[in-house]
Amino acid sequence: MTRILLINPNTSKEVTNLLMRTAPRFARADTQFVAMTAAFGPRYIASRLGVAVASHAAADTLAEYLRAATMRADATILGCFGDPGLVALREIAPMPVVGMAEASVLAATQLGPRFAILTGGAPWIPMLEELVAAIGMTARLAAVRAVPQTGAQIAADPDGSLAGLATAAARCVGEDGADVVILGGAALAGLAERLQDRVKVPLIDSLAASVAMAEALARTAPAIPPPRAAIAPVDSVGLSDALGELFRTPRQ
Amino acid sequence: MTRILLINPNTSKEVTNLLMRTAPRFARADTQFVAMTAAFGPRYIASRLGVAVASHAAADTLAEYLRAATMRADATILGCFGDPGLVALREIAPMPVVGMAEASVLAATQLGPRFAILTGGAPWIPMLEELVAAIGMTARLAAVRAVPQTGAQIAADPDGSLAGLATAAARCVGEDGADVVILGGAALAGLAERLQDRVKVPLIDSLAASVAMAEALARTAPAIPPPRAAIAPVDSVGLSDALGELFRTPRQ
Amino acid sequence: MTRILLINPNTSKEVTNLLMRTAPRFARADTQFVAMTAAFGPRYIASRLGVAVASHAAADTLAEYLRAATMRADATILGCFGDPGLVALREIAPMPVVGMAEASVLAATQLGPRFAILTGGAPWIPMLEELVAAIGMTARLAAVRAVPQTGAQIAADPDGSLAGLATAAARCVGEDGADVVILGGAALAGLAERLQDRVKVPLIDSLAASVAMAEALARTAPAIPPPRAAIAPVDSVGLSDALGELFRTPRQ
Amino acid sequence: MTRILLINPNTSKEVTNLLMRTAPRFARADTQFVAMTAAFGPRYIASRLGVAVASHAAADTLAEYLRAATMRADATILGCFGDPGLVALREIAPMPVVGMAEASVLAATQLGPRFAILTGGAPWIPMLEELVAAIGMTARLAAVRAVPQTGAQIAADPDGSLAGLATAAARCVGEDGADVVILGGAALAGLAERLQDRVKVPLIDSLAASVAMAEALARTAPAIPPPRAAIAPVDSVGLSDALGELFRTPRQ
Amino acid sequence: MTRILLINPNTSKEVTNLLMRTAPRFARADTQFVAMTAAFGPRYIASRLGVAVASHAAADTLAEYLRAATMRADATILGCFGDPGLVALREIAPMPVVGMAEASVLAATQLGPRFAILTGGAPWIPMLEELVAAIGMTARLAAVRAVPQTGAQIAADPDGSLAGLATAAARCVGEDGADVVILGGAALAGLAERLQDRVKVPLIDSLAASVAMAEALARTAPAIPPPRAAIAPVDSVGLSDALGELFRTPRQ
Amino acid sequence: MTRILLINPNTSKEVTNLLMRTAPRFARADTQFVAMTAAFGPRYIASRLGVAVASHAAADTLAEYLRAATMRADATILGCFGDPGLVALREIAPMPVVGMAEASVLAATQLGPRFAILTGGAPWIPMLEELVAAIGMTARLAAVRAVPQTGAQIAADPDGSLAGLATAAARCVGEDGADVVILGGAALAGLAERLQDRVKVPLIDSLAASVAMAEALARTAPAIPPPRAAIAPVDSVGLSDALGELFRTPRQ
Q1: pLDDT at residue B81, rounded to an integer
Q2: Which residues on chain D are in Cβ contact (under 8 Å) with F215?
Q3: Does the structure show a pLDDT above 90 at D83?
Q4: A47 neighbourhood in chain C, CB within 8 Å
Q5: Nearest chain B Cα distance for residue D41, angstroms
Q6: pLDDT number for residue F70
Q7: Do chains F and A touch (3 or more CB pairs under 8 A)?
């Protein structure tokens, strides 16, 4: 059995519910999910400011889980296609942590020469181009495209978003030369399978890729030791008890 | 159920047996393996020449499988830590193809800031440094190290190789600053778990990473359409019937 | 006159006082400083977790300033040599925002072919190597070195830290080939001038570089318009009023 | 006198004849050619699968030559603009080995700031973009363009292909900003001189560049010692005697 | 007080006068300028040949200054947006040397995610793309655009150039996605402020950025020691006395 | 017959004579050389300042040749292993121009996986590392090493330099892992063949590589048209008549 912690760094319970409802469709029969919603931050992350706040919120959520959980998850999925705080979560987590964007990009590069990312909201375009560069995959990136609706709007009206997404995905293939298209975003979870028959190349659902990668990493590296360079204990103020405790007693 | 085709591009049945024997230990209960050994080529790949021949042999093996198989595999693993012919296999395969080196590297980058590769045989060092560069992960590479024995020698005497591998892995951590160490090579399959308690960071078994990635990609993208740019049919000479047929009637 | 907002994303008032006390020594006579300390987070940032929390805290601090200030600062300095939340601050700030690390690196590259960074605490080494890569200056980086003490410990005992810093700086020059050495860290502000006569190449004080760059950018681009791609308003929970307001009414 | 071995990794005798007929036009008076056609593989290489098979076939051909030749060639030209197996040939050859694509690209970069590649068949476009990246010259690449006909079709009807090639070459200059255009492909050998007066920038014939580079390298480094890291002898199956012998007794 | 040496490597006194007239508008009240015009070379630099000659001329001018000046400047600005000879000037100068292009690019990257450069004369486009690559900022470059007029022509008729520059700047924003636009060129000094209200993003005047950066670096690193690797004295012929002296007695 | 213009941008007649005496040894029987010495500049180039002056001097020398020559050379060799002014010479030359460093590096990369550069004088080390980066071959560079003597000193006492060069070349192979070693420098012309039997990998004489590459490019691209973007005529002062004429009437 594999236990996966789903952290929604958006504070929208609707998105948490969407993730929780959709994830099992992509998972093994013996995979169990537990979902947590960030305690603070924007309802939907759609800016660099949102990513900054969510980096803290995601770490805070994981800290809460690590303190409270009676059974440790085998892997954690960071459920926002911007991977806010991913490296911080990896520093504190004793299990593999999967970033929705990173996992999707790494899967895509194994499925064809060039991939494109399709998401909601124009401000994400430069942010995701920079994220792909940080991952090291710029040479494989055909394009990042966005429909005008934000993820929140797509989640609120998925049916009304399909036509626009299909048109944009077709452009990723026809104009940008993508061999694979990632449908990126927690709020877009589950839409790829509804669009696949309108697109000639594999469409990757970022939640599906994350679930599969989490299951894979949980088996590949079941335990993650503390960072090699010992982190000094430090006091903090104004943080949740759980997060403050992590600063005070870092994993050694 | 997931069906995985294991292609051993080495022509050593012993390595095939090792892969076939070890893979299920890393796999889900409902994953089934079928293994095929390359019909021609070196017993063990340990040079650029070996990689060149194995690129053909691996493609030939997959072609045989595609023609003969009554049930299609859900994913293919290319069982040599040099990924010979990987892009060619992806061109012809209707299912995801996993390269042992690529899958290990991509897993490693998700498990810590820097990774090292440890394998057998000094000629692999520059070859693997170039492979990591081609994958796009040079910035994350701490070092490639090799023990003096070739993979074939390690496979023939795994017990006698453990001490040397443990020492080299410790150097990857202590001198090179690796947060994760990949034990790379088909012939080293199964050794990571025997060495893990002597190494402070996660040791990745390249077969384990490949099996988990194959299971993951099989779920993420169950079908792979033909290449976007149509490949022209072409006659050939001196090839197996199965491979010749692939040239004559490429997937469209 | 130039008004500079100093944001200390560490929650240590001692560091804020150190910045406030030292900054004027590096500034023009007509430059005025106002300093704010982050309302929450670790006393001293020395980990990826610390950076994640401080990204939020720095943005929160700037939000408070933007709401409360009767006179707008001409530039903002983010007073931690890890630039936590820098891109987020730039998204929300109507004035130039200077990152202590970025400003120091960009100054250093103009003063000689190769630079090194010297700071406190080994965990910073890989973090700063990645930061230099993100800035685009890896080809110019001779080395990142760290003395064993954390920045907090150096700030608490600067006199006792000088010998170790001098030795390490000499290694940056003698072994790594640095033409310029950055003494990086809010807690190290003011130490470069005490060490300069023991080092053969220019020593850059990261606070001095930041103050000078802030004065420069304030003149080069006195006003910064909102991001080109309009950011959608979004509700939030659990944030300070000032930061919540920024999510609700992003600059347009 | 310079003796050049021309290896045609395509199994098309027509292409071999074309190379053999055209090469002397680009060569010194005292350069002699001997040509060999691959013993197996596709008639014309136009896919990643073709490159994989040709990597083996090219190595096999060189092995045959090395065993049979009474007089050693001074240089070898790998006569396919995809350089199949180039690094493997360099591992086994005691003389310089020239790749048609690499030689053309390196010549082009010395003749102007940016170059374009023009070839036959759309599947080559991403393959050549990746090859240029592997060579290290992406920053100098203006574009890769392809006419719809494959190289085989161009070789069969060169006159009918000229107009399309001229139009595409003009686009490389006018739209892509190329200062030099490479006409790439064994099957296109000899066409550049027929097109040059229709194009404002230097047109490089990939065979001409290869012959000149082979003559140059034969003088620059007349002998190539074995690889620095000793390659272990290994048995093989199903290979030609000559190639099997190379595995059994690698150069030391 | 800060003393800045303005070197105009163009031999046009009009441009020197323009720099001298405009620089104080961008400078602190207590900054004083002294300007020198190159003793030889083209009236206006607009080619790679011009850059080559100006590299010598700029070094020659600085050598003259260093020999003759009774008071040493605190910083030097190299007043051509191609930075001719910048690394040579830094080798010989005991004070910071600012390149107009480099300073503008480094300022721009601190003011927004992507920048564009707008200048006069199409031959500058590839030259500046290469310069940005050498600086390390290609990933941040949205585009380089040029109006048809050369800098000389713009300097001769600034009013008549404004419309074309405004149109091109708008394209940098609307088509290329620039968040900041650099108006690059000594001859364009002072035009940015006249165009700013027609452009939605910050327009950087390359002279303004240079003056501010020079003031900043003068404070950050008031003295620059000789190069770490001692340069051997060497005789020369045909150079000015001052420059010949620098070869004969390099800084040690 | 091939006519090659050898430009010595050093003003040392001894080096010119050395080049003129040695080049024919590396050339075809029907290759003729004409050598010109720069009219001004340092006797020997060994600094960034030297490179800057030599950029002008090399262009000036070519301009003189272009005006005076009754028969046009088929190729030009820029005889300094720092390639001063190479891009400028290519802008004005109607024939291929070969840089000694670039030609050697491009030859080396075709002869083995990794190359090292060995030259005279420590200040060249960072300069050549930057040059290799600009060429695009950093990933292939094993090391740059320098013996303490400058090129001038080596040229004055070649016999006394051999032992030190042999030791350093052995380190390039044994410690740095170079498969090929370039002996770089006009003043080192002819020494590689004297050292080859002491080094296990191919030693490249930078003059030999340049001559062979010049012969090759002369055949590959016999004529080079003017730059695509028309360069505007411009007056100049203080230049030789020939160079001034090139500014006044650029090639169109």
Answers
A1: 98
A2: 212, 215-216
A3: yes
A4: 88, 91, 231, 250
A5: 5
A6: 79
A7: no
Yes or no: say if D85 and D63 are a contact pair by the CB < 8 Å rule: no
| Exposed / middle / buried, residue E195 (Cβ in 10 Å: 0-12, 13-18, 19+) | buried
Min distance A45 CA to chain E CA atoms (Å)? 19
Q: How far is the alpha carbon of B180 from chain F, nearest alpha carbon, in Å?
A: 23
From first to last of the 252 residues of chain A, give the pLDDT tens digit. Answer: 899 999 999 999 999 999 999 999 999 999 999 999 999 999 999 999 999 999 999 999 999 999 997 788 999 999 999 999 999 999 999 999 999 999 999 999 999 999 999 999 999 999 999 999 999 999 999 999 999 999 999 999 999 999 999 999 999 999 999 999 999 999 999 999 999 999 999 999 999 999 999 999 999 998 899 998 999 999 999 999 999 999 999 998
> Over 90: is that where the pLDDT of C70 sits?
no
Nearest residue on chain F to C112, alpha-carbon basis: F126
How far is the C-alpha of E46 from the C-alpha of E147, rounded, in Å?
Answer: 13
Mutate to test the interface with F, among D110, D132, D196 (most CBs of F within 10 A): D110
- Residue F240 has a pLDDT of 98
Hey, is the C-beta of B136 within 8 angstroms of any chain C C-beta? no
Q: How confident is the model at residue B222 (pLDDT cuts 50, 70, 90)?
A: confident
F216 and D220 in contact by Cβ < 8 A?
no
Asked if A30 has any chain C CB less than 8 Å from its own CB, the reply is no
Which residues 153-192 of A have a C-beta within 8 angstroms of C? none
Helix (H) or strand (E) holding B236: strand B236-237
Q: Is the pLDDT of residue E71 over 90?
A: no
Alpha-carbon span F108 to F115, nearest angstrom: 6
Q: Which of A64, A1, A15, A12 is nearest to A206 (CA)?
A: A15
User: Measured between CB atoms, does C114 come within 8 Å of chain F?
Assistant: yes
Q: Is the ipTM value over 0.90, yes or no?
A: yes
Q: Do C177 and F126 touch (CB under 8 A)?
A: yes
F44–E237: do the CB atoms touch at under 8 Å? no
DSSP string, chain D: -EEEEEEE-S--HHHHHHHHHHHHHHS-TTEEEEEEE-SSEESS--SHHHHHHHHHHHHHHHHHHHHH-SS--SEEEE-STT-TTHHHHHHH-SS-EEEHHHHHHHHHHTTSS-EEEEEE-TTHHHHHHHHHHHHT-GGGEEEEEEESS-HHHHHH-HHHHHHHHHHHHHHHHHTT--SEEEE--GGGTT-HHHHGGG-SSPEEEHHHHHHHHHHHHHHH-S--PPPSSPPPP--EESS-HHHHHHHHS---
What does the pLDDT read at residue E101?
98
Chain F nearest-CA residue for D133:
F136
Q: pLDDT, tens digit, for every residue of C119-157?
A: 999 999 999 999 999 999 999 999 999 999 999 999 999
Is-contact A183 A191, C-beta < 8 A?
yes
Nearest Cβ partner for A221 among B111, B221, B228: B111
CA distances from B161 to A117, A164, B44, B192 (A): 45, 58, 17, 12
Q: Do chains E and C touch (3 or more CB pairs under 8 A)?
A: yes
Q: Do B114 and C126 touch (CB under 8 A)?
A: yes
pLDDT of F252 = 82
Chain A residues touching B173 at Cβ < 8 A: 228
Q: Which residue has the tokens 């795994």?
A: B158
Chain F, nearest residue to E93 by Cα = F49
**CB-CB neighbors (< 8 A) of C238 in chain A:** 11, 39-41
Of A133, A158, A135, A20, the residue nearest A79 (C-alpha) = A20
Is F240 in CB contact (< 8 Å) with chain E?
no
pLDDT tens digit string along E49-61? 999 999 999 999 9
